Amino acid sequence: MESAKEEFDDKIKIIFLPFVSTSHIIPMVDIARVFAVHGVDVTIIASPVAASLFQSSVDRDSSRGRSIRTHVVKFPAAEVGLPDGVETFNADTAPDMIAKIAKGLQLLEKEIDKLFEELEADCIVTDMFYPWTANAAARLGIPRLILLVGSYLAHSALHSVKTYGPHKDIESDHTNDKFALPGLPHHLEMTRLQLPDWLRKPNGYTYLMETIRDSERRSYGAVFDSFYELEGEYQDHYKKAMGTKSWSLGPVSMWVNQDAADKAARGHAKVEQRGKEQEEEYGWLKWLNSKPESSVLYVSFGSMSKFPSSQLFEIAQALEDSGHDFMWVVKKKDDEDGTFLEEFEKRVKASNKGYLIWGWAPQLLILENPAIGGIVTHCGWNTIMESVNAGLAMVTWPMFAEQFFNEKLLVDVLKIGVAVGVKEWRKWQEFGEEVVKKDKIVNAIGLLMGDGEESVEMRRRARELSDAAKRAIEVGGSSHNNVLDLIQELKSLKLDRANRN
């Protein structure tokens, strides 16, 4: 018996499987890196393009003596009729390629399932969009943790709508009649049009979400990039409503991206730059450093969003009319109808009132710059967490996925957000018919950046949450304790399996 104890290695091997979109890859990889910091042996399985978005971070962690690596699996592009290099979802993914990428992921299931066994995983942590991994974990007799991207409130609201169907009392989508979300810790109201379409009327995505929910119930538990001081009431509510285990481990970005190299590389493929390109890359920093503290509005709608020219025009006019300096991240394909944005850029550059970043932006570094005073956001969860970390209040502009639920957390619960007034949920990659006019945008910016009592109080609350976020990941903090407790549970499960064998 004594020799058996001596032979038992309680070091945990965890395999992480992120989904193939930047907004899902980023939190999964950061969580993997948190576990590596705490002595866990970590392997991240990813296709070449997905791996390129985070490999530099993994390499830096490995050089720091942490047990972390990437296992690259070749994406079957040719088999599904895709050109090489097209294997992730983003704002520029052509509609006809979406089903092909999904098919490619399906073809990889057997190979990845085999890897779980070959790499001798003690636990797998997989994205919510891989429900099949619940079966893989059950077959291997190991725990599966599901990463649920988004807030506890969003998933609680989703459960409320599915359970009680309050929207069914409203006869038509095209009405401003509001309904309350039953059973939640706060009184929250929405309209039917603000709900995802698959909740309003069943479709193929409804079936996928049901499959995901089923896999969640069959998992050992769920992990969230959140922290108790941010939405503890909803963490408690969610665990009770779902009857499952759950751990908030965030803010994971703040935990593992603590130096400039980590922050600059996060979520971006490594590209060697020189000369003029490199100067342009760091031009944003020089511009921000020339601005007074808390004077600049940062505007970004994430990696998956795009707008028609009619909406871009309203945003541009609003930014100029707001009277505040601004930094706006725009996509290279945003202005397909002409040179409108290029002319706008020349104008605001000449007046020194605005700065446009084309394509990817080093958001972590930008948000922590003292010149940034607030942000206009699509309510994607990664950006919300990064803004909370930086102590910034937000103008909320939700579009798709769970973003309208996230808006409720910011505006109605935490009171660190100003709603721009978007009325209609839309499908990813579809523009929808709604155009938010410049007057609404100007008013929201004015409240966010203004000097009135409500504005000042909102920004104070945001700073308090930033302080709470820092405490959550310190020794003895809520998220720090959750990570240690979870690792200890996984070690106990490993010991139980060893004893049974």
UniProtKB/TrEMBL annotation:
The keyword Glycosyltransferase applies. It comes from the Eukaryota. InterPro entries: UDP_glucos_trans. Pfam families: UDPGT. GO terms for molecular function: isoflavone 7-O-glucosyltransferase activity. It is an enzyme of class 2 (transferase). Keywords: Glycosyltransferase, Transferase. Its EC number is 2.4.1.170. The keyword Amino-acid biosynthesis does not apply. Belongs to the UDP-glycosyltransferase family. PANTHER family: GLYCOSYLTRANSFERASE. This is Uridine diphosphate glycosyltransferase-2. It comes from Stylosanthes guianensis. The gene is UGT-2.
